[in-house]
Design brief:
By secondary structure, the chain is of the alpha+beta class. Helices cover 14% and strands 22% of the residues. The protein is globular and about 30 Å long.
C-alpha cells in the first residue's frame, strides 16, 4: 500500500493507505477525507477533486484535465485533478493539498 498525506486548507493532515491503481480521488473518498467531492465519479468531467501537488511529478496533465482545471476555483500551476493521478509505489509519502472549497 502507498501512503498519501492529504492536507486540508486549515493544515489538518489525513494519512491514507491507498491501493495501487486507485486514483488519488478514490483514495480520499474511500478513506473519508473531507474536501474531495468527486461528483463525476472520476471521469474528468468536473473539477470537484481539484488538489495541489507541490512536489515534482513526472506525470503531465492531459489537455482534457487542463480544460477542467480551467473551471476550478483558485487553480495554479500546482493544480491537478485527483481522479487523473493513479496511485503507485513511486507516490509513497506524497503530500496532496486541498483547496478551501470545491465547485
Amino acid at each position: 500500500m502507498t501512503k498519501i498525506i492529504f492536507v486540508q486548507s486549515d493544515g489538518t493532515e489525513h494519512l491514507v493507505e491507498a491501493n495501487d491503481g486507485d486514483s488519488i480521488m478514490t483514495a480520499a473518498i474511500n478513506n473519508d477525507v473531507p474536501g474531495i467531492d468527486g461528483d463525476c465519479g472520476g471521469n474528468c468531467a468536473c473539477a470537484t477533486c481539484h488538489v495541489y501537488i507541490r512536489q515534482s511529478m513526472s506525470i503531465v496533465a492531459s489537455e482534457e484535465e487542463k480544460t477542467m482545471l480551467g473551471i476550478a476555483d483558485n487553480a495554479t500551476s500546482d493544480s491537478r485533478l485527483g481522479c487523473q493521478i493513479s496511485v503507485s509505489d513511486n507516490l509513497d509519502g506524497l503530500r496532496v493539498y486541498l483547496p478551501v472549497a470545491q465547485h
